[in-house]
Prior knowledge:
Elements: H1 3-38, H2 47-56, E1 61-68, H3 81-92, E2 106-107, E3 114-120, E4 126-135, H4 142-146, H5 149-168, E5 171-175, H6 199-205, H7 207-218, E6 226-229, H8 234-245, E7 250-254, H9 260-275, H10 282-287, E8 304-307
Parallel strand pairs: 1-4, 1-5, 5-6, 6-7
Antiparallel strand pairs: 2-3, 3-4, 7-8
Helix pairs in contact: 5-7, 7-8
Amino acid sequence: MSPASKIIRLKAKVAALFLICVFVSYFFLKPIFQRHEKFSSPSFSDSRCQKKYQELYNRDRIDIRIVFGYKDARPARFVGDRYERALWLRPLLADCISGEGACGFARSEGDDELFEKEIAGPDGRPRKVGLRVLQSSVGPDDEENRNDPFQKWNSERVRKSFLEGLATADVVFYNGHSRNGGGPDFQPPMIAGNGNVRYKRYQIEKPGIKELLSVLEANHQATIKLLGFFSCASTRWFEKPILDLKKGIGLITNTQLVYFSDALENMTAALSALLTMKCQPDFDRILKGGSKADPKSGSTQVGIKSVGLLN
């Protein structure tokens, strides 16, 4: 072999060795840089906002409950909350892009309803976020659900998880029917002979909100800081009784009727703003439909509102 060939061969070996070193270094060092970036301290526009987030993230594990109520379409038989849950989860399991918070979750092994991720808390220390996402219906047909013992069992299980969250979780979001002030509701609705929902009965008896208020009143040391109602006219039906009872709680409601896709977007935006620790007015701007990466991009949904979270 000529000297020139030996030199060429040596250079090729050196180049290959260099590429191998770069490749190995990338995979070994990437997690270190990711951890450093992931747990860098967030910046805050004012000290009051920072204090509120310190209160919200005062535990090493943050418990967030997302509860889909029984979303029937009466007088039609279709029930949609199981499909809405699946649709809402898709971006949460996707990789994050800059400025996003409602993403990057991983499904917990052995628990199909629990999703987890790590974020930096307001002090820069890592926090584990446990996101429990529940659906009320067991099938898409309300008539069949009414005759299914599994539906009765699941409705009761989801109801208990929601009420438990009011006492022990940090954040609870409800996405379902307001039932004219009778919600939240996790079971097939009370209906008349013609298949229509008995809204007047819900409005008079108020079974869901009465139970909710009873739990809040009985748990003075409850850890909940934020309660969200992503449901029609929830401001009208739920805001006053809740704030009269628990003035320090953060509350998200909707002032008008809301289409299901808008409610899903509102809920995703609220979660993203919460996990990226946006201060008001950026939190409200994102909640109302502004870009999550650029909170100054404007808003498109005027019905959603927040009270008491960061002010």
